[in-house]
Structure formats: structure tokens, C-alpha cells
Amino acid sequence: MRIDPTTPVIIGVGQSGDRIDTPDYQAWSSIDLGASATRNALADTGVASAVADAIDVIAAVREMENMPHVPSPLGRSNNYPRSVARRVGLTPERVLVEVVGGQSPQSLVTDHAETIARGGAECVLVVGAEATSTARHFADRDDRPDFSEEIDGQLDDRGPHFEDFIDMTMVRHRLTSMPVAYALAENARRNRLGVGVDDYRRAMGSLFAPFTEVAAANPFAASPVIRSADELATVTDANRVIAQPYPRLVVARDLVNVGSAIILTSAANATKMGVPRENWVFLHGHTDLREHALLARADLGTSPAAAIATSGALEMAGIGVADLATVDLYSCFAIPVFNICDALGFDVDTPTGLTVTGGLPFFGGPGHNYSSHAIVETVERLRRQPDAFGLVVANGGIMSKTSVGVYSTTPTTWTPRSDRPLQARVDNADPLPVAEFFTGSATLDTYTVDHGKRGPIGVVVATTHDDHTRVAALTSDDALLALLEVGNPFGVELTIEATEGANSARLA
Question: What SUPFAM superfamilies does this protein map onto (predicted)?
């Protein structure tokens, strides 16, 4: 097949790690990790010097500490992508930092593939890293390193844009905690299936046990330990409940030190620079969709947008689920994985597996950057399986944003974005109205119990009787908490009262 010279291709990928429990731990900053991953990606191209000279854009995944109200105990760079560039000796014309959300790595790859196809960039580096484990380790020590760095130069900071999936109703009712928010969705799905808490935990354990086997073979994994389904599902002192129904071991692991880098250019440029043809990987399908706000979803236990995005990317690539050789479904919690499996017919025991990294609870959840590692692993595996296809599903917010990529070494012409018809299918589903404050009667839809340091607090979502409006509320009511802990409170009648800071619920 003749390849259009403007076709975007991935030509280099790399990862880096600095595990705190290993003899060669170096206390690297996120800049160091990003720079190391970039050097590895440059070396992976086979023509590092030529590619380094050609990089004119660096697109960085936003670090967790580069967000309002998030502490940076060791300091940080005021311009992360240019700090990475300076470490490696790159001189990009333009750099940017993306908005928040785990969808951003795949979204950045898609965005810049399209930019390259239009002739708007020559060679693009997508880079991201987190050193949260090191930051936690040194935070209160006198010998802590200083990672502060001031660097001049252009920066397109796209801003966090939390408002894309968080509003004041969520802030008032603890839904900025991802375990709490996802637990509401998880329990809603459990209610739809008619499954008890213990059986549902066993299902999560069965889903994630194979992930641990992948993580155990991954040198960059934060927790390279094989665990059984029973071990993951059984609540113990070491595997305490974080937010019902989640035991600790099935929740994304945020203490990691890892970085990743992906380099894209055009087919013409790759040829000109002498990148070996067997290094090229093409993006055959891609989608980016947004879901309704969590509390406005008619069924809080599903995300149609994620399913539509995934099927849409596969359709663009001209393949089906059975044609995939590798799969990575975003796995901060069980429900994003279950959501795709339910909708598209993935078998949780599929021989291809549902992760190429080990997943966020075991490989680790490096802030918004997890799916960059999934893309790197996918590219490396596909190079060993010419003409096979790999799927990466990236998720941001509370199943709020989904970005999907379908990859292969098989050449293809670039297909421009065509998300609008798919987004219209999502938007056409009528969202429920949501009340920030409410006093009156309502029926419980879903719930969780947040087991924090100050004791358990119930979080409930209910639908009002009069106008079918959604309302969230907190509860410390002993009778209601006891019912929530048992795990089958769906459909009970609540009395909700608007108080100064948040709505309060008790049994009617």
C-alpha cells in the first residue's frame, strides 16, 4: 500500500521508573522521569539525533501537583515541558500542558496526529510523569530535595478545567474523592444486576486477578505481585474498605514514580529521518466523547459515552472486538472495565487480557498519565505482532471523558476526527435535573460509605418524589448507616434536609 506522506505515525516510545523500594532508587523528580522516558523514546526511533532536532512541539500531560489546592512539598517546575526539553537538549517552538483527566494521553496523541496530518507540526513529543511516591517519602524530612525550577519560554497552559466534570453539588457531598464517586456508580451497577456486596467483591477480584499477573511481569509496575481473586476481594485489616464496596487492593494505586514518552511525525518525515519502517505504528481509529454529569445520568451505573466511543473507534478502524490482539481498558476502579465489557461483549477471561500494563491498582495510577504507558506497551507489543491491532481506552473524570485509540503496524490513511455524530447520540439521552440543595422526601438510587480517618460517612444519591430531580446527601444517621453497611438499601425512602454546607439524609 502506498502511504500518504502526510500520514501521522508513532516512531518512538519510552518509559522510565524509579521505584522507591529498589537498590538503584535515585529520588528523581517528575522532570527527571519525563526526561529519561524521552531519551528512551528517542533511542527507540533508531535515529535519536535526527528526531531530537525535528521535535517542534512538546505536549505534556498535566502533573497532579500542577493543579489548584494540590500540595507540591518538594517544589515543581513553572514550565514542565520546557524543563524536560532543557534536560534532553530539545528546542521546541511550542509547548503545552493539557487539561486534567486520564483521557488526556490518548487525546493528545489523537490531537497531534491530526495536527501533523494537516501540516501544523513536524514532530511531536507527548510526555508525562509523576513522582508522587518520592514526594510522599521526603515531604516531612529535613533532607528533602528541591524540585523547584523556573524556566522562561512560551507555554500554552490549557488550565485544569475541573468544571468539565465537577460542580459545587459534588464538592459539597464528597464527590471530589474518586473512590467515593466511583463507588456510587459501582453500587448502581450492582443494584441493576441484583448482586450482593460479597458476590460483587468476588466479581471485582476475578476481574483484577489476571491484571496482577501482567503487573508482576512489568518492570515499571508499582506493585508487581500476583494476587488471587480471593485475596483481592476479602476484606482484612490489610485490605480494608476504602469506600463501600471497594477494598483497598482494587483501588488505583497513586504512589508511583514513572514517566512515559511518545513521539509522532509524518510518514514523509519518518522516511527522511531514516526511522526504520518496522518502528512505525499507525492510529487506525480514534474517538473523544463526553458523558453527562454523574448525578444527571439516568443510570448512574453506566457510561454510554465510553461504550459508544470504543465501538466508534473500532468501526473507524474497520475491525471488531474479536480482531484485537491487545487491549487496555482504563482500570482506576472496576466499573470502567465492566462498563466496556458489558456493552461490547468483552470476556473478562479473554486470552488477550484487558490490560497491557497491569492496570491502575497494580501497575499504578500516575495521575492523568496512566494511558500513556498503555500506549507505549501497546506499540511495543504490536511491533512484535505485525499487522495485529491493539485497543487503548482512556478515561477521565468519573467516566466523564473517554478517548480511544486503535493501533496497528498496518499502514492506513489518516481519518480526520468524526466525533460529532457519536457525541450527538450521547447528548440525545435526556439528563435528569440535579438540585444542589433540597428538603423533602426522596428514594435512594445508590450510595457508598466513605471510611475515612474521622469515621464512616454515608453518601447517598436519591430521586425526589415530586419532580424526579436528583439530589445528593451525606448521612451520619446510625440507622441509615447501618442499612448502608449491610449493602441493600436501594429504593428505601429518605428524608433529606438542606443544611448550611450540604444536604443531610436520614431514614423516612
Answer: Thiolase-like (SSF53901)
